[in-house]
Amino acid sequence: MEKEVRLSIIITPKDMHHFLVKHTYGGVSGIVGILISVVALIFLAIGYQHNDTLKNVMLAGIGALFTVVQPLQLKLKAAQQVKLNPMFQKPLLYLIDGSGIKVSQMEEEAAVAWEDIRKVVETKKSIIVYMSPVRAFIWPKEQYSDKAVQVKELISQNLKKEQCKWSKV
User: Fold this and answer.
1) How does 86-123 read in b/e, with b if 16+ C-beta sit within 10 Å?
2) I need a labelling partner for 61 at 20 to 30 A (CA). Which of 3, 16, 93, 95 fits?
3) What is the mean pLDDT of residues 69-89?
């Protein structure tokens, strides 16, 4: 008999926030943004006494941009996205097997073949299955902890090793 795993996933604002933070800060632009903010805060700390008020305000604003403002925006965006998108109001049912991943909700159903999956990334809290840079399944581990090993095995059996970025934790 072919191996399969079934998951029932409800995305919460916390899950969406975790995904958005990972997606935003996981790439080069996110790292550059953090570096810009840190450098601005260092310049502010070093030159605070000698800078004029406008320069201090600008440095503080730039420093807060990627370290305070953007994380707050992501938290609000996550809450709004989950609240306003009907897809997140009911569980998404996933069937993972040798042919790919089928997702269904109420009378809607879609299938994704293994060839259409770009990469899989495991974080401390989730497994994220990317079909494109902007389309992904988010599977919070706390919702299927008893099946996590089976999920990883099935994915690993059907994707190339370089497509799977498993956490070392």
Assistant:
1) eebeeebebbbeeeebbbebeeeeeebebeebebbbbb
2) 16
3) 95
Domain hosting residue 68, numbered range: 15-84
Q: How deeply is 66 buried, as exposed, middle or buried, from its count of CB atoms within 10 A (0-12, 13-18, 19+)?
A: buried
Task: Please give the order of strands across the beta sheet that includes 164-165.
Answer: 135-140, 126-132, 119-122, 164-165
How far, in Å, CA of 47 to CA of 42, rounded?
8
What pLDDT, in 10s, does the model give residues 95-143?
A: 999 999 999 999 899 999 999 999 999 999 999 999 998 899 999 999 9
Indicate the length of the chain as a whole number: 169
Q: Report whether pLDDT(168) > 80.
A: no
Residue whose pair of structure tokens reads 């974080």 in the numeric block: 123
Which one of 59, 84, 109 terminates a domain? 84
User: Among 163, 120, 123, 167, which Cα is nearest to 141's?
Assistant: 123
Beta-bridged to residue 96, according to DSSP, are 5, 101
Helical ranges in the chain per DSSP H: 13-25, 28-47, 53-64, 70-84, 148-158
DSSP category for residue 138: E
